[in-house]
Amino acid sequence: MVESPDLPLAPYRLENGIKCFELVAEPVLQEVLPEIYMQGYGYNGSIPGPTIVVETGDWVRIRVVNRLPEATSVHWHGLDVPNTMDGVPYIEPSPLIEPGYGMDYTFQIINPPGTHMYHSHYHTIRQEMLGLGGLFIILGKQGQGQGQRHNQRDIAYMLQEFHLSGLPKGELRPGTYTIDPLSDGFNFFTMNGRCFPNTSPVQVRLGDRVRIRLAVLGMQGHPMHLHGVQMLETAYDGNEVPPTRQLLRNTVFIAPGETRDVQFDAWNPGHWPFHCHIPHHTSNNFTLPIGGMFTTIQVAR
């Protein structure tokens, strides 16, 4: 079972063999740190939106309802779908979703198991940077991902960055702040919509084999570093890396628009940091305590 810490999995219902999901694009108030909120755009009440999990071969219908004050669309990043379902209005024959309306994206999952994303592809510079995105994960029919040995834990993270306006640099004050989508002076860096110490730790058992799925939606790349064990890089952009080309790493770089899968054996007990290795990205608004794109993986005996 895929887990996305601090984010729900998108529920679905079966109708005539089709998995039916619903995404509501709407203004969202997201708590990145205790009593510090950002105002942006999200799906189903969160930034990023809920994690969609399907299987290769599934037929899906994803109803997107637009409760934003502007038109929008959804692009299924990395998925091989019909041109009318790809979600880039005016460039493709894919409709624009006006405020107060909805659209059904219907297609079959023909990609192999892997890690992908979904996000707005209309007024991208604004909507994507206000938070409109989420994880889209394809499993094999037996519930497993790419052809790796069985993983006891399967953890997924969306990595994002935001500029919260009105908060003086070097300070953390409780309050609600707007996201400036046109700024490249980012001051908050999130894993599944939260900053450390508001990120939930991942607890695994000694001896577990763990997959971590990483996706970057935004402007900056992130070299993610795990303490205590080495990570085997097993997939790029939802495509399995042949075993003879898999690299053993302790830091994996994910560029904007990319996904990476890594796995490791939890042989070394302890509380191990997992974080972006760019120093500014592990700070909350440039304050000194550790923050930002940082969490822990706790290996218990």
UniProtKB/TrEMBL annotation:
GO terms for molecular function: copper ion binding; oxidoreductase activity. InterPro entries: Cu-oxidase-like_N, Cu-oxidase_C, Cu-oxidase_fam, Cupredoxin. Gene3D superfamilies: Cupredoxins - blue copper proteins. It holds the Pfam family Cu-oxidase_2. Residues 39-141, 188-287 form the Plastocyanin-like domain. It comes from the Bacteria. GO terms for cellular component: outer membrane-bounded periplasmic space. Coiled coil: none annotated. PANTHER family: MULTI-COPPER OXIDASE (PTHR11709), MULTICOPPER OXIDASE LPR1 (PTHR11709:SF2). This is Multicopper oxidase.
